[in-house]
Amino acid sequence: MTEREIIIGTSGFTFDDWKGVFYPEKIAQRHWLPYYAQFFSAVEINSSYYAVPRPGALARMAQITPPDFRFSVKVPGEITHKRDNSLAPFEQFSERLAELTETDRAEALLAQFPFGFRRSEAAEEYLAFARENLPNIPLFVEFRHSSWDNPESVELIRGLDIGWVSPDEPAMPQLMSRKVISSGEAAYIRLHGRDASKWWSDGGKLRYDYNYNKTELGEIISRIHGLPDAVTRVFVFFNNCHGGSAVRNALAMKELLGQSTFPQGGRMGLI
Predict the structure, then answer these.
(1) Helix residue ranges, H only, the chain
(2) pTM value?
(3) Of 6, 11, 51, 102, which sees the most CB atoms within 10 A?
(4) Measured between alpha carbons, how far is 191 from 11 in angstroms, rounded to an integer?
(5) Do 131 and 160 touch, CB atoms closer than 8 A?
(6) Would you place residue 1 in the very low, low, confident or very high pLDDT band (cuts 50, 70, 90)?
(7) Alpha-carbon torsion, ordered 200, 202, 204, 209, to 10 deg
(8) So what's the architecture of 5-256 in CATH?
(9) 202: how many CB neighbours lie within 10 A of its CB?
């Protein structure tokens, strides 16, 4: 069996409540990413969901992180949620992504579709449209509705040359199950939390307020080890961002896997 690379990180890194939990209390925000990059080799950029990054923002992120640091960039909500087939948001997003692709720093694109995006002929056609109009970077798609939770959907995604995202979320009707699968050589896992009482309450404001215990992390690791041998890379991103749980759980999983949790390199986020 080829040795499998398991790449662990978090969904975003700019959280004030990580100060004192992960970031030093007095560290300036502009130093958060280089500090984070001492402990992790990848991050999801989730801010791009809300707005296309400002000119120079992605280039700056690449500049202040090690050359082998990896970025997964979330596709704007205008593409995944509005879905009016306008090419403008695709073009704007692609233009900004060039700041990473020119230096080969964009590892993946993440397209997270909403619960209301259910499997249909129109939805399948839109996936093909999105793949065609996004840059030639590995694209991974996350579904939230269980109508996609079947082998036929995996085959559809594989045929479109799209990667499958395995979400970890509460065991609730109409949500995706916790299977860890892949539609290609790379698997992509997003851990949101398992508290069903918070998923829909108050508009889901505390949906990601969850702390995985070691038993749960071990269960997820077992599922990763159960992937087919053809899967050579696995991305694991913790999205349970509240109170620093994501970064604590990511470090705990690294430790369980025997990966280093000590800071690497000379950047201490204090430059």
Answers:
(1) 32-36, 57-63, 77, 88-101, 121-133, 151-159, 196-199, 214-225, 245-256
(2) 0.95
(3) 11
(4) 9
(5) yes
(6) very low
(7) -110
(8) Alpha-Beta Barrel (3.20)
(9) 8
- pLDDT tens sequence across 46-90: 999 999 999 999 999 999 999 999 999 999 999 999 999 999 999
DSSP class of 23: B
Alpha helices in 6-87 (DSSP H): 32-36, 57-63, 77
The mean pLDDT value of the chain amounts to 95
Alpha-carbon span 145 to 248, nearest angstrom: 28
What is the rounded average pLDDT of the residues 86-97? Answer: 96
Task: Provide the residue count of the chain.
Answer: 271
* Tokens, residue 10: 């978090």
Rounded to 5°, the CA angle 23-217-265 comes to 40
